[in-house]
């Protein structure tokens, strides 16, 4: 088989093809692999813009576009398009190697020639040019080549530079934008080079060595190791697209750290992908005999991470080194092994009657006492009454005097003793106990721990994370976003013995959702300031996407039946457009509304299943959307009396601080649900819309 690489665009387009055309693509690639030595099945086009580009016949109506270097035996499957579009692509596009960065580039050369004529006529009437202050040698140092340089000298204002964005290679356009914004050449180079996987000296860049250029461009292409590998890639093209790394993400994932490291960023910026590649790097480079833990906070994400890791780590021995489990399962195992008895975890709602009874003489309801125990006492690891009397209760609203705190403490002791008698636990309590056991015994279960969705871990679970691995180089790698915090857990990592200062990186470009979806969704969050896990302020001011598409659709209805009928019509439209059923996600704020929605889809003949697994359209709660990704997303029931969900919001009169936190958490939850969408977002409500909707 030739050395074969698949471009990201090829996978994205392949995923959207109907099954008939996909099977034809599979057959064409098999034949190509069998006959590549004599050039079989590749057609050279006489008027191709780039003589190294060929077509691969798929069907009568479809062609693949293949970059076939003249030497080296490497082929890049660039894209698959309808017949006429493929030939137009070949007649317009040319590939090259960036002489400063060494990466593979493609430009719309026909479009540039047309634009050059337009710009020349405009420039005749203008004496000054946009880049008069930048000498040619500096532009060349930044990778702007001779063809682009001649066009650059015609630019008179930034609007013309913006018009070139879709025609120029991205790296060259980025260099010009940096200079136009006032950056020095040195500052522009720093911005460009930080995204390189490997920095190549100019004398090492061979303009004819496309294979080396492709290898320096892992954000756009992946090499196929053999027929089985190719089949695996095509079996899950949408999933594979999701594990591509941008060079900036790769530089974060594939390096050594002297201690705990963290990556943050808005929805779709690739934090989870970076974490997965971090695990792949650790599995390939370390084998001490102890496993690597890849963990998160829910079973839903646990399953999704495991599926993605199997795509990424193909070596069975390396995969065997990785334990993919949510943190509750890890904690449960530690406590069960130490006590010899399996703890019985209960939902908080199941425990409230017990806490009501235990706190009957305290003057506080059981729900308040239970929350105080988890959010203050367990969160701060308070062991004595004196500790509690002196503790700060940030985010818990109204002040409690010493006598009130003593009554709370006695009620908590009574309630936890009754829980112990019946072996009943909360998951937070199990995590706190597991952390204590590991600290007491000195056991360290893992060589490395990688945590996804870190912003939603309770402080007790952070203590467990710290206790699972010995302190040292590459011990912890954390990925999270405080703007997606959907549980009321606010922590300071440094206070928990996890110092990421100086080893924290922030991603600002979303590769999932379009700019139109992001711009709309960010407004859902409101204007409240956000503090990150490293105690520093965090904002989405520079959060953006290079992708563009349709604006989100927001529709209102008089009643729920009409709203769900419209949802059925929208889902059917997506499916008719060729969207795979399991690439459509539908979310509702409550479980009952999610079940009602699933039943309506079933009645309309639309197969569906749970969000994280199963077949058909995926349906579930907004909480269940966390960490998932879909081509099209519908969020239903975004009504004023459902979002925010009153049962989950503390009354303002009771606790104004907690009330504010709860409202922000509800905003974050809606934001998370909407930013699961890659191509299309549909939001609906019955009656008055949620006040969170822009």
Automatic annotation (TrEMBL):
Reaction(s) catalysed (UniProt annotation): Couples ATP hydrolysis with the unwinding of duplex DNA by translocating in the 3'-5' direction; ATP + H2O = ADP + phosphate + H(+)
Alphabetized UniProt keyword annotations: ATP-binding, Helicase, Hydrolase, Isomerase, Nucleotide-binding
GO biological process terms on file: recombinational repair
EC number: 5.6.2.4
GO MF annotation terms: 3'-5' DNA helicase activity; ATP binding; DNA binding; hydrolase activity
Protein name: DNA 3'-5' helicase
């Amino acid at each position: 088989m030739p050395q074969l690489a698949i471009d990201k665009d090829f996978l994205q387009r392949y995923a959207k093809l109907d099954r008939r055309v996909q099977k034809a693509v599979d057959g064409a690639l098999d034949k190509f692999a069998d006959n590549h030595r004599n050039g079989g099945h590749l057609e050279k086009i006489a008027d191709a813009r780039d003589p190294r580009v060929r077509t691969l016949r798929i069907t009568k109506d479809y062609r693949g576009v293949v970059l076939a270097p003249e030497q080296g035996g490497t082929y890049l499957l660039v894209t698959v398009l309808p017949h006429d579009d493929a030939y137009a692509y070949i007649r317009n596009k040319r590939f090259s190697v960036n002489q400063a960065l060494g990466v593979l580039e493609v430009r719309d050369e026909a479009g540039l020639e047309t634009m050059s004529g337009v710009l020349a006529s405009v420039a005749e009437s203008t004496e000054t040019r946009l880049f008069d202050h930048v000498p040619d040698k500096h532009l060349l140092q930044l990778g702007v080549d001779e063809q682009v340089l001649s066009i650059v000298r015609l630019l008179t204002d930034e609007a013309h530079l913006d018009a070139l964005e879709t025609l120029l290679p991205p790296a060259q356009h980025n260099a010009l934008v940096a200079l136009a914004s006032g950056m020095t050449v040195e500052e522009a180079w720093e911005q460009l080079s930080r995204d390189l996987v490997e920095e190549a000296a100019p004398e090492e860049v061979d303009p004819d060595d496309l294979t080396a250029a492709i290898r320096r461009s892992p954000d756009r292409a992946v090499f196929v190791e053999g027929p089985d590998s190719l089949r695996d890639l095509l079996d899950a093209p949408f999933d594979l697209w999701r594990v591509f790394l941008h060079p900036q993400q790769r530089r974060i994932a594939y390096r050594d750290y002297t201690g705990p490291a963290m990556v943050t960023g808005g929805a779709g910026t690739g934090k989870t992908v970076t974490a997965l590649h971090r695990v792949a790097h650790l599995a390939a480079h370390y084998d001490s005999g102890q496993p690597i833990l890849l963990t998160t906070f829910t079973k839903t994400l646990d399953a999704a991470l495991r599926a993605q890791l199997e795509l990424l780590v193909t070596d069975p021995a390396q995969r065997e080194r990785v334990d993919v489990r949510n943190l509750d399962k890890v904690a449960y195992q530690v406590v069960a092994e130490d006590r010899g008895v399996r703890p019985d975890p209960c939902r908080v709602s199941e425990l409230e009657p017990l806490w009501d009874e235990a706190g009957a003489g305290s003057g506080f309801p059981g729900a308040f006492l239970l929350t105080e125990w988890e959010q203050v006492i367990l969160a701060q690891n308070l062991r004595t009454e004196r500790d509690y009397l002196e503790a700060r209760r940030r985010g818990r609203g109204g002040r409690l005097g010493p006598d009130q705190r003593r009554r709370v403490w006695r009620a908590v002791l009574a309630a936890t003793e009754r829980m112990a008698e019946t072996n009943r636990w909360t998951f937070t309590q199990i995590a706190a106990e597991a952390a204590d056991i590991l600290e007491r015994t000195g056991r360290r279960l893992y060589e490395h721990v990688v945590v996804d969705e870190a912003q939603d871990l309770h402080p007790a679970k952070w203590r467990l994370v710290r206790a699972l691995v010995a302190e040292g180089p590459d011990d912890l790698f954390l990925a999270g976003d405080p703007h997606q915090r959907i549980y009321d857990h606010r922590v300071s990592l440094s206070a928990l013995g996890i110092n990421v200062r100086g080893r924290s990186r922030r991603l600002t470009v979303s590769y999932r959702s379009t700019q139109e979806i992001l711009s709309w969704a960010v407004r859902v969050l409101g204007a409240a300031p956000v503090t990150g896990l490293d105690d520093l302020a965090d904002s989405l001011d520079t959060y953006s996407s290079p992708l563009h598409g349709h604006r989100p659709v927001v529709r209102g209805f008089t009643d729920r039946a009409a709203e769900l009928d419209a949802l059925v019509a929208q889902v059917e439209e997506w499916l008719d457009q060729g969207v795979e059923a399991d690439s459509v996600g539908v979310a509702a704020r409550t479980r009952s509304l999610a079940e009602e929605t699933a039943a309506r889809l079933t009645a309309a003949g639309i197969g569906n299943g749970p969000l994280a697994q199963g077949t058909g359209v995926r349906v579930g709660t907004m909480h269940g959307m966390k960490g998932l990704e879909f081509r099209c997303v519908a969020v239903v029931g975004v009504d004023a009396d459902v979002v925010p969900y009153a049962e989950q919001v503390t009354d303002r009169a009771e606790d104004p601080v907690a009330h504010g936190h709860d409202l922000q958490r509800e905003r974050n939850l809606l934001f998370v649900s909407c930013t699961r969408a890659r191509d299309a977002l549909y939001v609906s409500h019955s009656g008055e819309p949620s006040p969170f909707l822009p």
